[in-house]
Amino acid sequence: MPIRIPRGWELPESAATPEHLVLGRRKALGLGGLIAAGAALPWQGAAAQEAAPMAAMRNPAYRPERALTPEKDATGYNNYYEFGSSKNVTAAAARLPQRPWTLKLEGMVDKPQELGLDDLLKRVSLEERVLRHRCVEAWAMTVPWTGFPMAELLKLAGPQSGAKFVEFHTVADRAVMPGLRQSWYPWPYVEGCTLAEAANELCFMAAGLYGKPVPAQNGGPIRVLFPWKYGFKSGKAITTIRFTDKRPVSFWEQLQPTEYGFWANVNPEVPHPRWSQAHERLLGSNERVPTKLFNGYGEFVAGLYAGLEKERLYL
């Protein structure tokens, strides 16, 4: 008789949401499948996003083990230096057009291509994930994202055997981003990871937040998420994903490599040079809680770093 050992995230059937509640929720949202009902609308800014639902079935594999952050706090407290150094960039970010939007897959791939975002969302399997987000500044939030695993983009691109790293290039629109006038920053904002990290099940491309399209100030219309890393690794408003054999030097790493490294995995025992990382402040409640190694996602990602102990894996 075969013996099956469940993974730590698996839930018993009794804990699943009843089917009639799930289907009722989908009907209430007007979903005809998992694609947002307003995906084909010609959105231009944040105001148009508010009217269009963007929801999907929740994946129970990623249990946050803490309360959801109130939407007003998660969407009203943001780091987005392209729009300024203030935490309140909502009004400024609303000027960034959200449609039309294209995503380029290029570099060391068999299938370089340029995808319209709405077409892309029809080709992937959307799901909702409630994930913890940990900023290097020691604040945190827990929010429901709608999107798809980065691994689905890898299948569309077909990375070549020599590709080892992935670069994420974000939008740089001088017409609406006043921060780009600050020439001491190495614009555009570029982030990167290993191909193995991009293929990990936890790496996520998010196009929705709280059942609606991701607001511009939170990185809309599409951003990448690395929940086990500090938040600056999760690039916003992605325009190009490039596959390469050279390790990228990311935006903040170019500015201050002693404070912001390539790996930037969350570790409470490795302080930032100017502050501790042992605790984090939860947006909304302002409660201070202990920080977890890999932001609590070690069971999914710790194996990625076996044999890399000599690397500066944290910060």
TrEMBL record:
It comes from the Bacteria. Residues 99-252 form the Oxidoreductase molybdopterin-binding domain. InterPro entries: OxRdtase_Mopterin-bd_dom, OxRdtase_Mopterin-bd_sf. Pfam families: Oxidored_molyb (PF00174). NCBIfam families: PRK05363.1 (NF003767). This is Protein-methionine-sulfoxide reductase catalytic subunit MsrP. It comes from Teichococcus rhizosphaerae.
